[in-house]
Amino acid sequence: MTDTALTTVMNDHFRLLISGVREYAIYMLDPAGRILTWNPGAEHLKGYSEAEIVGCDFRRFFTETDRVQQVPEQILARARAAGEHREEGWRVRKDGTTFWADVLVTALTDADGVFKGYAKVTRDQTEKHAMEEQLRSSEERFRLLVGGLKEHALYMLDPEGRLQSWNDGAQRIKQYTEAEVIGRHFQLFFTADDRASNKPQRELELATTVGVVEEEGWRLRKDGTRFWAAVVVTALRDAAGVLKGFAKVTRDETKRHQADIDLHLALDRAIDAESMLRKHALELENRVTERTLLLTEQTDTLRRLNAELEQFTYMASHDLQEPLRMISMHLEILRMRNRDALDARSQASIASACAGSARMRSLIDSLLSYTRIDHAPTSHEPTDANAAFQEAMENLQSTIADRHALVRSHPLPHLPIEHSQLVQVFQNLIGNGIKYNRSPTPMVTVSAMRMATEWAVRIQDNGIGIPEQYQSQLFQPFRRLHDQSEFPGTGVGLAIVKKIIERHGGRITLHSSEAGSSFSFALRMV
Fold first, then answer.
1. Is the pLDDT of residue 274 over 80?
2. Is residue 504 packed enough to be buried (19+ CB in 10 Å), middle (13-18) or exposed (0-12)?
3. Which of 34, 253, 395, 401 is 20 to 30 A away from residue 314, measured at CA?
């Protein structure tokens, strides 16, 4: 076979070999970087068919940043200067996605040494690169973690116990710098007694046997002072099980150790005092029993007195009603029969007596209303506050019309309160907002706001306002700030409102200024 024939056969075999490789992109470039050949591995890796890529510039495989920085030109220049050039970096596929490429570029010359172009072999190493990046990131995080541990001394030992690493926490706790301890045996941290008993070596032998050893004991700092150390020693082995050394973590637990000692001393003192405490406890128990019996008797007496007081108040109120009615009736008869015979002064006296009698009856009615609240049923079933508001509005219809008042309500929630008592609350608060008001058009607004687990219902008016020094008195029965001639009433309405709200587990507050008053009561959400 001639040399030419042999060369042809070898070239055919080489082309067959190249065409059968799919894991590598193998192709040739002319001296200017244009693609001359293209194997199936290149098509598989980069996405271009041979027909659409041959003759194109190989720079299209590089990222925009690399092209701007002339990385393709630098690669070819280095390959030609050195004969070959190897590097790794990001490359771009036909669809625009990138992959991490391991690239070998070889300069090609003929038998006469004439430069003919380049051979280029590319392999996708994206997965390997990702794993290496993840490993580097993990190692960096580990270094940062170890370096950042200030409360723990963390260091490595070789199989004989010599120090191989040293973190900032170790320097803080043991006072040695890294340069002072690397290569030295870790027994320098043990007391003389521990070294004499061969404790450091026994610690490593036990860790070698069981894997992890935890213990506590005295250790030495550089300046010779002692600290109580909590220690964890872990034997480190490779995949084959060969011992490579030890990892050691030490924490200064001197304060906790001293606290344990103090606790044990305190427990001893407590045990010594136990018998005395038992004696005093028995004496105290006897006294408590005696006082409990006395308190029970006093409570029963107080409960009986309260019941009698309520009964007295109720009966007295009823018994007063009839005499007052008779007084008013006879005064009216006297005035009617002697209308012509009575002078103006007498007429005024009779009118004043009738008014006083009527006021007395009103006070008695208010007292009865206030007393009945204690016996009224409570309910925590949901009540539609909108319906209660409407009923209160119907009851106040004539008052609203007489005063040309404007009462508005925003949507109200369901509240855990007995319906008729909620009507009474609305009626009293809205009525007060209209009555204690000098505006030609009294305005009252009712709204509700959700607050965590409660509903807060607010009744806002544009009335006369209440000075701050008197606000705390308003919820007390029969407390009034104005003369009857200006604002008639008994002063019981707000006391009734307060008692109703509190009996249903709520609270009521007042905020007032010259622009008006705002009463707010809060009840839990249902």
1. no
2. buried
3. 395
Location of structure tokens 């008006």:
516
Establish how many alpha carbons lie within 13 A of residue 145's alpha carbon, considering only the half-sphere containing its beta carbon. 6
Percent of the chain residues past pLDDT 70, beyond the cut: 72
Kindly give, in sequence order, each residue whose CB lies less than 8 Å from that of residue 61, ignoring residues fewer than 6 positions away. Answer: 46, 91, 92
Per-domain boundaries in the chain: 3-125, 149-252, 266-375, 378-524
Burial of residue 474 (CB within 10 Å: 0-12, 13-18, 19+) is buried
| Domain 3-125: CATH superfamily, name plus number | PAS domain (3.30.450.20)
pLDDT in tens, 173-217: 998 999 999 999 999 999 999 999 999 999 999 999 998 999 999
The confidence band for 5, taking pLDDT boundaries of 50, 70 and 90, is very low
Token pair belonging to 84: 């070959």
Backbone angles phi, psi at 376, to 5 degrees: -75, 150
Entry field: residues in the chain: 526
Assigned architecture for domain 378-524: 2-Layer Sandwich (3.30)
Give the CATH fold of the 149-252 domain: Beta-Lactamase (3.30.450)
> Which among 99, 74, 104 is positioned nearest to 87, based on CA atoms?
104
